[in-house]
């Protein structure tokens, strides 16, 4: 059970200990306002995540992929980006997407299986969550490559889990990014399991970050529950990328407390209570930052209560907006297959339209 | 003004002109740079436009197609060359799960104007997996367009249209026809619309539907049968395989009442079945005989020592015509 040992693994970059102590200098890099942004971001996401699980249980959204426990990785990485940077999330990274500018009600719409749930705000470059594993990593190489060709100061970040590192596209993406020195950030949240398969069965390499060496790109292993370390690491990767120094592979060691999705029962493949209790009690990303902030006098109980109240209201407002959002018209399934609708789609659309009219509906 | 060009030269010219015309265009693939492509379709372009626009990529089809999706998302117009159609399989997921669906998933917010060129088909005495004709895989995928030219003139005009198309296009180049013949190809950048078939020979007794390399077999068979029996076959070159040009398909069958479909792809679930369905839906009462298919067999394309027996031949096509007309 090495992965859950209390010892700090030597090769991991860590700034904020689980006790809320700073062990690396962050002077001038992370100021109070950024710290509060980080904390509030994590608090918002945890509230959102828990709410979403409840909504799934109530049948108000469909199958949902929770990320509780991984907030530092998602918030820290997303806050290190600029507004115009390209983001390629997976189905577990809507937290990062929200921090990067995706609207909460759209995320609800996505999990409600509404067509409009994958649209991002105008001017943002947040792609729909990738459902196949690792495939989006090569897209992030492509968008970054195009940014480089045109001399645009943007990076592309691809999110993925430890299971994705077994896929061919992981290797093809790293290889292409290395060859073309694209401003791509590969951000792995290693939460120890690809659904039920633990990392030891996933790979013989001890770490994911070490694989960067094979492609001669920069690799970093970071405590994924330490938001300061995550932010600093991604920030550095952005700077490297924009200086033309190429891609970075970041392995953020973290853990999701809950199931793979709401359709999954993790008790079958891991000792749920023991493992998640260990992480929750010893390494929780929110608790450790709270400890630090309270110690520094930047945060207190009243602020916490007020923030939670505000976040709950905000989330409820977005939920209301999502639930009140016009339902997908069945005919919408024919839209946007191509830029221009061809004859067969026009006719099939008409066919469905006639069926719907006969049914007394639209 | 024009020049006599092979299909290969017409394709190179189209790419050359597109590269010169639009900075966003880039070509990428294995061996397409210094080497000019295994069939020389990109010959001279590397020297003319440089390594950043004619890019020799690592040998990785998913990486090539996947990164091209990203390039297309971010404003470039990538032309991807996949060395042979059957080598596309490692990149198949990128095509069907991402390229084809990006516009749909983002409700039109992000499109993938990606062009994938690949030699396909048998008859070049290639090693195994160099001769496949699996257009059905792509024609079964909403969001993709599939084009297959049969001559130099169409190849140039269709290629330019395919590159300018806002959606991903799979451009199937019949390897056997690359250098098979020359024809006059205009110098200017002309376009042939995607989605339009062409009646290449008028006739009244039977329609042959074909595309790619099989078009020549169809035309040769039609010529012979006319000489031998006096029957006049109409020959339709589909040119775009998805979406199909239903109107041209149907107009012709209404005129002739009999049809033969010739394709080198396997018979089962080949596009011939789709064409028969279209005719059933639209023109059943015009039919004077069952529609026949002359196709590749439902076996893996065999070694080249016997591949001629796999491919539809002029004799098989002729036999098909005779059976249909004497029904």
TrEMBL record, chain B:
<dbReference type="Pfam" id="PF02779">
    <property type="entry name" value="Transket_pyr"/>
</dbReference>
<dbReference type="Pfam" id="PF02780">
    <property type="entry name" value="Transketolase_C"/>
</dbReference>
<protein>
    <submittedName>
        <fullName>Pyruvate dehydrogenase E1 component beta subunit</fullName>
    </submittedName>
</protein>
<dbReference type="GO" id="GO:0016491">
    <property type="term" value="F:oxidoreductase activity"/>
</dbReference>
<keyword id="KW-0560">Oxidoreductase</keyword>
<keyword id="KW-0670">Pyruvate</keyword>
<feature type="domain" description="Transketolase-like pyrimidine-binding">
    <location>
        <begin position="5"/>
        <end position="180"/>
    </location>
</feature>
<dbReference type="InterPro" id="IPR029061">
    <property type="entry name" value="THDP-binding"/>
</dbReference>
<keyword id="KW-0786">Thiamine pyrophosphate</keyword>
<dbReference type="InterPro" id="IPR005475">
    <property type="entry name" value="Transketolase-like_Pyr-bd"/>
</dbReference>
<dbReference type="InterPro" id="IPR009014">
    <property type="entry name" value="Transketo_C/PFOR_II"/>
</dbReference>
<dbReference type="InterPro" id="IPR033248">
    <property type="entry name" value="Transketolase_C"/>
</dbReference>
């Amino acid at each position: 059970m090495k992965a859950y040992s209390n010892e700090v693994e030597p090769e991991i970059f860590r700034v904020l200990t689980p006790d809320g102590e700073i062990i690396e200098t962050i002077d001038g890099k992370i100021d109070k306002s950024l710290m509060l942004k980080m904390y509030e971001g994590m608090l918002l996401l945890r509230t959102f995540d828990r709410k979403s699980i409840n909504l799934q249980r109530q049948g108000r959204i469909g199958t949902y992929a929770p990320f509780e426990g991984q907030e530092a990785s998602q918030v820290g990485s997303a806050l290190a980006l600029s507004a115009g940077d390209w983001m390629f999330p997976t189905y577990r990274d809507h937290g990062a997407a929200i921090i990067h500018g995706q609207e909460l009600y759209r995320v609800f719409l996505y999990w409600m299986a509404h067509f409009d749930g994958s649209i991002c705000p105008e001017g943002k470059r947040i792609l729909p969550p990738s459902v196949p594993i690792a495939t989006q990593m090569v897209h992030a190489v492509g968008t970054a490559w195009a940014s480089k060709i045109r001399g645009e100061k943007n990076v592309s970040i691809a999110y993925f889990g430890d299971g994705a590192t077994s896929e061919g596209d992981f290797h093809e993406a790293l290889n292409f990014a290395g060859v073309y020195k694209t401003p791509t950030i590969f951000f792995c949240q290693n939460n120890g399991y690809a659904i039920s398969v633990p990392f030891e069965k996933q790979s013989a390499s001890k770490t994911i970050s070490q694989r960067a060496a094979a492609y001669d790109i920069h690799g970093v292993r970071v405590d994924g529950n330490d938001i300061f370390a995550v932010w600093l690491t991604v920030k550095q990767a952005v700077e490297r990328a924009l200086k033309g120094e190429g891609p970075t592979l970041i392995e953020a060691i973290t853990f999701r407390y809950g199931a793979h999705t709401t359709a999954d029962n993790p008790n079958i493949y891991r000792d749920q209570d023991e493992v998640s209790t260990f992480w929750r009690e010893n390494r929780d990303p929110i608790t450790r930052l709270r400890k630090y902030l309270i110690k520094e006098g930047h945060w207190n109980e009243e602020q916490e209560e007020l923030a939670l109240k505000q976040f709950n209201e905000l989330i409820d407002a977005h939920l209301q907006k999502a639930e009140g959002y016009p339902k997908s018209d069945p005919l919408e399934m024919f839209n946007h297959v191509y830029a221009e609708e061809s004859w067969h789609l026009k006719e099939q659309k008409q066919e469905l339209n006639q069926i719907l009219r006969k049914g007394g509906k639209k | 003004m024009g020049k006599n060009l092979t299909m290969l030269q017409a394709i190179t010219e189209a790419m050359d002109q597109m590269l010169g015309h639009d900075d966003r265009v880039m070509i990428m693939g294995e061996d397409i740079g210094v080497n000019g492509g295994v069939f020389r379709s990109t010959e001279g372009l590397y020297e003319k436009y440089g390594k950043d626009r004619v890019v020799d990529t690592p040998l990785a089809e998913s990486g090539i197609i996947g990164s091209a999706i990203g390039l297309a998302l971010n404003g470039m117009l990538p032309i991807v060359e996949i060395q042979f159609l059957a080598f596309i399989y490692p990149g198949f997921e990128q095509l069907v799960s991402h390229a084809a669906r990006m516009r749909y998933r983002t409700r039109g917010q992000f499109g993938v104007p990606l062009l994938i060129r690949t030699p396909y088909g048998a008859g070049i005495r290639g090693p195994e997996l160099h001769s496949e004709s699996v257009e059905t895989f792509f024609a079964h995928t909403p969001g993709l367009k599939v084009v297959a030219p049969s001559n130099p003139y169409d190849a140039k005009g269709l290629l330019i249209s395919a590159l300018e198309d806002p959606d991903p296009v799979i451009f199937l180049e019949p390897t056997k026809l690359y250098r098979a013949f020359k024809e006059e190809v205009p110098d200017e950048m002309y376009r042939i619309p995607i989605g339009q078939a062409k009646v290449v020979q008028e006739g009244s007794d039977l329609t042959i539907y074909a595309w790619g390399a099989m078009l020549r077999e169809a035309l040769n068979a039609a010529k012979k049968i006319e000489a031998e029996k006096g029957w006049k076959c109409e020959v339709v070159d589909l040119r775009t395989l998805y979406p199909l040009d239903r109107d041209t398909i149907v107009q012709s069958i209404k005129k002739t009442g009999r049809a033969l479909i010739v394709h080198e792809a396997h018979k089962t679930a080949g596009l011939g079945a789709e064409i028969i369905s279209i005719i059933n839906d639209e023109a059943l009462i015009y039919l004077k005989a069952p529609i026949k298919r002359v196709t590749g067999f439902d076996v893996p394309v065999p070694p080249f020592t016997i591949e001629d027996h796999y491919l539809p031949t002029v004799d098989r096509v002729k036999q098909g015509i005779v059976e249909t007309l004497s029904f």
